[in-house]
Amino acid sequence: MGPAVGKPKSQSPGPNAVDRLSTLLAEDLAAVDALIHQHMASPVGVIPNLASYLIDAGGKRIRPLITLASARLLGGGGDAPRKLAAAVEFIHSATLLHDDVVDMSALRRGKASANLVWSNSASVLVGDFLFARSFNLMVETGDIQVLDILARAASIIAEGEVMQLAAANDADTTRERYMAIVEAKTAALFAAAAKAGAVAAGRPGVEAAALETFGRELGLAFQLVDDALDYGGLAATMGKNAGDDFRDGKITLPVVFARDAGDEGERAFWRRVMSGERTDDDFHRAVALLTRRNAIAQTFDAARAHAAAAATALTSLPANAYTEALAELTDFVVERAH
Can you name the CATH fold of 16-216+314-335? Predict the structure, then answer.
């Protein structure tokens, strides 16, 4: 192992963090894209058409990049990390297709969601196909440990989505319960993506554990920023409509902060709107209450704390360009809204 780094310094927060990773991993990423298109091929035309509509819609490929970088920073390379990176993207894409059906979303990655263009049934079934393809890719690596890591992540993600569904419209959802949902539905795949890369590089011990922590904390930061952006982000930035969480009755961290700091009248407002009794003006009032109670700023502060923990998790790993690029990513996930 190379020399350990102190806390990695972030060079340039913003889109350049993803661009740098993409440049460092250009050859690997091209191979991953080829694997993705190869494995989503099917004689049933709607499958590749719908899958490519989502997968080629301009997503940043952050999760596959994490898998590739985690392997490379530990000296790994070759087919196994590439296949795992493609599997990670398939798992992520499948969950997006299913989520959009559950949430009745109209926008994904800046354009009409696949369930609107095709149908709910087609989106669910193509999501199932992508899940199956992800397991094909895992099996092709011949590594039972990485199969276990990603299979566990897939089941945890499903549990998180069911937990979120059960918590919908429940204005009494606690911060602890909500963070458990976020850890399952979002952070678990980030953590598994990073850990799988380390295991594929032949480093299943302390390095894999450090990268798993990095991924989990990064995923938590990523989701909390999304929570904040729902109450003020631009659709062009988010790839979805502002207010979707509010209209779906999702209790996210900004709502928890505002509710807990609010007076009885404000808590009654949150109970009413989260139960589904909303007027056209309620979203604007919600934003005003979040601003009054400093809830958006608190959510960004929480995201920054998780991003800092992600950066700290990298400090015991070899100092190289891949580690530095992952450290930059911890800034990107928080600052991408600015």
Answer: Farnesyl Diphosphate Synthase (1.10.600)
